[in-house]
Specification:
Layout: H1 2-17, H2 21-34, H3 44-51, H4 56-66, H5 79-82, H6 85-101, H7 106-132
Length: 136
Amino acid sequence: MNEYFTLLEGTAEFFFVRLVFLPLLLFAVVAMSLKFPQGLPRSLSHWLLLTSPFAIPFIIIAWGTIMEYDESVPNISSWYDKVIIIPILGQLALSTLTIRKLKGCRLFTLSIGLLQLWCSCCAAFIASMAITGDWL
């Protein structure tokens, strides 16, 4: 369990330190303020659809923790690292579906989707390093 929080801390550091986070956050704030409040999702199901992909980075980090590189195991399979792309592709599909479904607030939905994708890419980067054992 300690390894999970170590990887989570590395992901959070990577997420916030890189300069990509600030423009994405600014884009989300501007998109929200342009149509506030009539352009935001109104129902709980729309908010759940919009925010559910934020769980994907935690899934990716859990996979990185479970399949962490161990020097005592001589032959590590290469598919451990390749599995990380599956939740990211699922997140892209869910974000596309959400943008199509929430017609009145597509700009806001796009900005939230980009934040979610950046968070998942940060988690995938850290989890891949944990799985392969190649820390940069």
